[in-house]
Structure formats: structure tokens, C-alpha cells
Amino acid sequence: MPQQQTRERIYDLYTAYGKGRLDFVLNSFDDDAEFISYAPINVFPYLGRRHGKAAIAATMKQAHAEFEHLSWQPIFLVVEKSDAAVIVLARLRQHSTGRIIMLLVAHFIRFRKGLIVELREFMDSFDAVQQVLGREIDLSKS
After folding, report:
1. Whole-angstrom Cα distance, residue 117 to residue 35?
2. Listing from the earlier edge strand, what are the strands of the sheet with 115-123?
3. Which of 10, 51, 110, 134 could, after both became Cys, cross-link 118 (CB 3.0–4.6 A)?
4. Integer Cα distance of 31 and 33 in angstroms
5. β strands within 39-66, DSSP E
6. Which phi and psi (to 5°) does residue 82 adopt?
């Protein structure tokens, strides 16, 4: 797939994800895809390592059940051959508290035959945890 076409497709996928159109997004994943989120699973138990489209679908559905996605906007995108790196500015509302969470998320995506076969996710998890918990983490107790 040409790089410009990949760029446009990625923007479409992120727009769809932000709007909760998960079926559209999942159609871009290989059945045997790997999703790895380097986030603390004691705070985000639906993240971590997921294998296969069904497991990835469950993760996406749980993320949307936990948070209303107010915006999910790529602010930086690099595409090279069958790989892409995306930085997303996420603005979320936590359903359980109504708290607004803002964070940057980095995605590294690998395509094969036009489908996503691997997505690795990194976030400033320290900041995200503080926002989700609604308090600063006291490091003096460690």
C-alpha cells in the first residue's frame, strides 16, 4: 500500500476509533494480530498484551466502556514502508467519575498485506494513573 494511502487510512481509523466505530477499526486488524500496551494493568486491567482480533476487540470495547472518547486525534504521524508511528492526543471522560483525562499516547503499528499485525502502545502512564485516580501519587512512601 502506498505511503500516502496508509497515512489517510490511519487518520480514518483514528477518527473512527474516537467515535466508537470499533467494527470499522477491527476490520483493519489481521485475525492473528498482536496488541501490546505498556501500561500498568492494575489500573488499566483491559490493557497489557492481547493476541488475536477477538481479544483486541474486547480491549477496545472495555476502553470505550471505561471512558468516553471526547477526542482521539493523531498529532504526529510517520509512515515508512509497512510501519507507522503515531502520537495521539487523547481527551477522555472517565464514566465512573466524570473526570476529564488528557494524555499523549504513542502507537507503533506494523502492517502486512494491508492489515495491522502488530500495535504497540506507550503512554505517560504515571500521569495517566494520577489523572484516573484523581490524586498525585506520593513517591515519598516508596
Report:
1. 8
2. 49-51, 29-38, 115-123, 100-112, 83-94, 67-80
3. 110
4. 6
5. 49-51
6. -105, 20
C-alpha grid cell for residue 37?
500496551
Q: What is the C-alpha to C-alpha distance for residues 33 and 90, in angstroms, rounded to an integer?
A: 23
CA atoms within 13 A of residue 63's CA, in its CB half-sphere: 23
- pTM, to two decimals: 0.85
Q: How many domains, the chain?
A: 1
Give the CATH number for residue 53.
3.10.450.50
Instruction: Tell me which amino acid residue 14 is.
Output: Y
Domain, as residue range, for 28: 3-141
What pLDDT digit, counting tens, does each position of 91-130 carry?
999 999 898 888 899 999 999 999 999 999 998 755 555 5
Q: Determine the Cα–Cα distance for residues 65 and 32; give it in Å rounded to an integer.
A: 24
Contact 137, 117 (CB under 8 A): no
